[in-house]
Each structure stands twice: as C-alpha cells, then as structure tokens.
Amino acid sequence: MWVVNVIHACWVAAGIVGFLEAVSRLRRFRWLSPLAIWTWDILDSAIVFLALGAWEWAIDGLSVTILPITAMVLMDLHRLAERKRGPATAVTLVTLAGCVSLCAAWPGAAWTTKIAMCAPLALAVVLRALKAFPLRAAPLVWALPVMGVFLPRLRMSLFDLVSAVVTTLLFAAYCYERRNRERVWRESTLDPLTRCLNRRGADLWMHKHAGKRVVAVIIDLDDFKFVNDTYGHDAGDRFLQETARRLQASVCPEDAVIRWGGDEFLLLLPCSESEEPVKRRVHDIHHRLTGFPADLGRGGQPLYLRASVGVAAGPLNKALIQRADQALLRTKRSSKNAVTVWQEETSEGPWVADDVTRELRFSAAFLSALAQVAEWGIPGLADHVARVQAYVRWLARLASARGLLPEEEVEPIAMASVAHDIGKAAIAREILLKPDRLHSAEYAYVRGHTESGRDMLERVIQQWQLAQDPSARRLFAHALDIAWCHHERWDGTGYPRGLAGADIPLAARLTAIADVLDALLSRRPYKDPWPEQQVFHYFREQRGRQFDPNLVDLLLEHWHGRPFVETRDAVEAGIGSAD
Predict the structure, then answer these.
(1) pTM of the entire structure?
(2) Confidence (pLDDT) at 132
(3) Which residue from 373, 312, 334, 265 is spatially nearest to 478, judged by alpha carbons?
(4) What is the pLDDT of residue 463?
(5) Residue ranges of the alpha helices (H) in 105-157?
(6) What pLDDT does residue 51 have?
(7) CA end-to-end span of the chain, whole Å?
C-alpha cells in the first residue's frame, strides 16, 4: 500500500513542478518580459492552488499536507526575486490566503489537522517578516511528518505521512535545482568584474523598456590606459570596480548600470518629459564619480577618477544610444572630464554658459594668478605665457571656423593655456636659468614639470570650492590636460605618457604648437630667436610627427596673420635703422 502512496505522491509533486516550470518558461518570452516580477509570482500561486483544488475535486483525493508544503515551496522560490517591499508582502499574503482558504474547504480532514497543517506556514511567514530566519522549504515542512509521529491525536494516516515525506524530498530537490539554475541565469547577465549588467543583460533590460522615455548616459573613463600602464592591470580592475560602485550608489534600483565597453559604462535612467531635473541629476552623478579620490591599494596617494560623459534623452531605441555616443565623442574631442548633452539639430556643449560667464572669468583669473606665482623670478616667462595664450586663442578660433573645435571651447582653452608651464614651480631655478644647453640628466629632471603641473592642479581642483561650478570644472579640466600633455607628440614619442594622435587632448595639441612657436621665435638664455622662414619650415617638417597635421595646416595657411607679426616686424625695422 505504501508503494502506491509513494507513486501517487510523486505523481502529484511532478504535476506541481510541471506547472511551476511552465510559468517559469513563460517568463522568458520577450513579449511577456514587461510584466512585473510580482505578477508572475502571484500567477505561480494562483495556478498551483487552482490545479490542486481541481485535482482534489475532479480527479482523485489528495492529502491535506500537500497544501502547506506547496505554499512553503512557493514562498521559498519567490524569496529569490528582487522586488520592493510592498509587492513582496502582497505575494506572500496571496500565497498564504490561497493555502488557508483551500485548506479550510478541504474535504475529509478534521479541523485540528487543518490547523496543524497551517501552523508551520504561519510560523514561516512570521519569521520571514521579522527577517529572523531565512525561509527554506525543507527544514520547516519536515515538521509535518514529525508532528504526525509525536502527535497521533491528529489522526494523520499513512497516506498523509508518505505524501508529506515524498513531496518534501522532491520539492526540496526542485528548489535547490531551480535556485542554482536561476543563479546561473542571473550571472549570465552580469559583468563578472564590476557586477553591472553586461551586453546580454542590457539587451534584456532595453527590450523590457523599449519605447519608454529614458535618459541614456555614456561614461568613458579618461586616461584609463595610463592607469593600466603605470600601476598595472590589477589597479585598473580596482579602478573599474570603484567606478561601478559609485555609479550603482548614485542611481535608483529601477535604473540600469551597464558595462558598455572596456572603460565605458552606460546608464539608462527612466524619466518624465522634463529634462531639467535630469541635467541636474547627471551632473550630480558626474560629481559623485569624479569629486572624491579612489584608493586603489597601490600604497601611494589616491587617484581621482576623470570621466567624459555624453547624454541623450528620448524613447529608448538604438538611435538614442547613438546620440549619447555622439555627445560623448564631442566631450572627448573638446575638454574631457565634462558632460555634453545631445539635442535635436545641434549638440549642446558641456553644461556651462555659452558666453564667458562671470564665474568662468573669476576662475580664469585665479588660474592666471596661480600661474604667475609659479613663474615668479623667471625673467621673460610671464611674457611667454601671455604670448602663448594669444597664439592659442588665435589658432583655436581658426580650428573652430574649420569645424575642428566647438566655438564655445575657444575661450576656456585659451584661458587654461596659462597653466601649461605651471609645473616649473617645482623645478630648481638654477636649472631653468642655465645659460647653456641642459645635459641629459638635467633635461630628464626638467621633463618632470608636466607631472608636477598635473599634481598641483589636481590638488587645486579638489580643494577649491569654485571648482564645483560647471564652468570652473571645465576650465580646470582643460588646464589639467594642457599642463600634463602639452609635450606629447602626434607620433607617440613625446612625454610623459607617450600618447599619440587623437588620444592627446585637443587643448594640449593647440598649446603645444603655440608653446613651440613662441619658443622658436623668442630669445632664450641658450639661443637666439630663429628666423621666421626657418620656423615656418620646421612646422612643415614636423607636421604629423610632433604636431597635429590639421592644426599645422591652419597655422601655415594663416602664417602671416598670426599675432605679434607687426610688433616683431617693427622691432626688426628699428634694429635695422639703428645699425
């Protein structure tokens, strides 16, 4: 007889598992994916309890012990899903109500037995609500056959006991297998390093929210290759993990944080029609990402994350992601470490005022004063800095007219160029004022002024409160790029990092030309000024080698229209008449 009971219990358990698996498979259909998780959980409970009721009244008799066991299995499976507290409570109450109501109407069972069947279930719900015990099906449902052994007054039959034991074992095995299966499925949608969504997870999220209005934010880490090359790939991995942690802490649970590429992240933020709050929110995310140092465990001073951001808002589709990517490209080409939003017909630049605002002028004045302190006591350096700024402004305007540079970037880059030699404050004056050429050791020492300039500006940017203003942050981002990278060469043989081509920030490429142009045309302690024709030929030879070929073409094309030509001609004429 007990063999028949075992077979019957297996049959019932297999039927319930079949219903649960059918609903589980339906969840994977893309056209059903927009349904909320709690909707599927309630559907699980409803279908299973309806099937048990139909089985009892339409097919053959079932043991009442199957009800609390099934309810606990459902709550154990639903516990895995991530949901808000409200829907989770609703799912639990629906499952509890289904079990209790069906148990109360169950024919052929005494009320004492029915109460004893629901007691473990009620206990499980209370413990779950108090978070005092992690709900699992097997430990609690084993209480049912134990109660049948030690409390014979419940009059549980052999059929009830066998059904309880067999279904418990089968359900426990099913719960274990399904938990592992769903864990593997979730892991397949996550990036193993950062725990953000990977491309597969992003595709599922975007399909679920297709057509809804969202804000797409693409974040690209600036100079990530430098971190890998300088501190090693382990530090680079920690850099990515810290970036992901900050992004996940800055968004809501319903938002998507996606690792979009090697050093790129994509945020998808559902939004309303108004975009102004989104602008403020994205700027706040950028500040949280870049405003605090990151400890990479390298035993030295923490590094600051720098990130370029492109933003686009609209219905979620591939075109929206492409627009955000175009906005990011504009940020990378102009200032870096800034936010650019894409708009219809024209792409709005980094989120600052289009004109030179009062805050920007004040920030530029502070930067200029800082540069003057750095060059204090070096004859002629202040004039050199002023001329370089004039050259940069002139060349940047030409680049803007040619479409190589956004017009609103001209003045901030020119203002920031005064900081190109700010790192020379850390170089001994006897080396800078040496009348002869430097030997190799001295030259290597002087080359360190680029790293010193970067360190000085990073400290200023993080400690000066006005740097939190978008225009000030934009100005200092240019200054940091110029001080650090204006000795890089187009062919990749420059210093300090060996950047090449478009990897060199545009502001640094402009300043590099202006710096060398003034240096060659000016008198230095170790050399006389070069003739203009020789300087002209030098830039033509270094086109595509030391300098950006497009910018050199502009320089040579407008050679006689550059600043200070009249002044230089007048000086040379005066010298000639004196002779």
Answers:
(1) 0.54
(2) 47
(3) 334
(4) 59
(5) 111-130, 137-141, 143-150
(6) 83
(7) 129
pLDDT of residue 577: 31
**517 sits in which H/E element:** helix 506-521
- pLDDT, residue 360, reads 65
Q: Which residues pair with 220 in a beta bridge?
A: 264, 308
Q: In the chain, what's the furthest Cα-to-Cα distance?
A: 129
List the structure tokens of 74.
Answer: 């459902």
For residue 147, the model assigns a pLDDT of 52
Residue type present at position 560: H
Residue with tokens 């059904």: 163
Nearest-angstrom CA–CA distance, 120 and 352: 62
Residue with tokens 């407008």: 558
Distance, in Å, from the CA atom of 26 to the CA atom of 190, rounded to the nearest integer, reads 22
Burial of 130 (0-12, 13-18, 19+ CB in 10 A): exposed
Q: Among the residues of 310-428, which ranges form H helices?
A: 318-333, 358-374, 381-401, 410-416
Residues in contact with 1: Cβ distance below 8 Å, sequence separation at least 6, in sequence order: 158
In three-state secondary structure terms, 83 is coil
Cα dihedral: 450, 455, 460, 463 (round 10): 170
Given a cut of 50, the residues of the chain with pLDDT beneath it are: 81-83, 132-142, 146, 149-151, 153, 345-356, 465-467, 569-579
Q: Are 37 and 83 in contact (CB under 8 A)?
A: yes
Residue closest to 558 by CA, chosen among 394, 329, 342: 394
Q: 339: which strand partners?
A: 309
Residues in Cβ contact with 514 at an 8 Å cutoff, skipping those fewer than 6 apart: 387, 388, 389, 391, 392, 395, 417
Q: Which pLDDT value is given to residue 430?
A: 64
